[in-house]
Amino acid sequence: MDGPMIQSRTAVTVRYAETDMMGVVYHGSYLPWFEIGRTNLLKEMGLPYRKLEADGYLLPVLEVAAKYIRPAVYDDTVTIVTTLRERPILRIRLEYEVRRGDELLATGHTVHVFVDREGKPIRPPASVVAVMSAAFK
């Protein structure tokens, strides 16, 4: 896709506990991988999730989707490619690809909203707005 975007890559080695009786990664194991990719992308942007929480901002998941294309197995090294394609205003949508080398294993996305400690939707903090404004000129 053309235009500005923010992207992060995170390598993960498949643990035995993430596999099922068929020896492939259990479908539910992909959601924590999405979280790893998401938190790494924010950290690389200078917006570590721990700091957002300390400042009173939370990012609950509103929507999650995953499409499984090929299986990953124990001890594979997979890369989670996390992409933010559009500047978040009230919601933030992240897209994910799970790859083994050049092979696409799964895709997915999550949608989040910024909320305060009471769970009330709020605008993103100034630190997020500044980073996003610079990235999405």
Describe this structure in words.
This protein has 3 helices and 5 strands. It has 137 residues and is an alpha+beta fold. The protein has one domain (6-135): Thiol Ester Dehydrase, Chain A (Roll), CATH 3.10.129. Strands 1-3-4-5-2 form a 5-stranded antiparallel β-sheet, with helices on one face. It starts with 5 loop residues before the first strand and ends with a helix. The model has no long low-confidence stretch (mean pLDDT 94).
Could you write a compact summary of the structure shown?
This protein is of the alpha+beta class and 137 residues long. It has helices spanning 30-44, 49-54, 126-135; strands at 6-13, 61-68, 77-84, 91-100, 103-113. The mean pLDDT is 94.
Q: Fraction of residues in helices? A: 10-25%
The average pLDDT value, as a whole number, equals 94
> How many strand segments?
5
User: In whole angstroms, how far apart are the ends?
Assistant: 16 Å
Task: Label the overall shape.
Answer: elongated
Order the strands across the largest sheet as they lie in space: 1-3-4-5-2
Radius of gyration: 16 Å
List the domain count as a whole number.
1
Spell out the key features of this protein:
alpha+beta, Thiol Ester Dehydrase, Chain A, 137 residues, five-stranded antiparallel β-sheet, elongated, 5 strands
Blueprint of the fold:
Layout: E1 6-13, H1 30-44, H2 49-54, E2 61-68, E3 77-84, E4 91-100, E5 103-113, H3 126-135
Antiparallel strand pairs: 1-3, 2-5, 3-4, 4-5
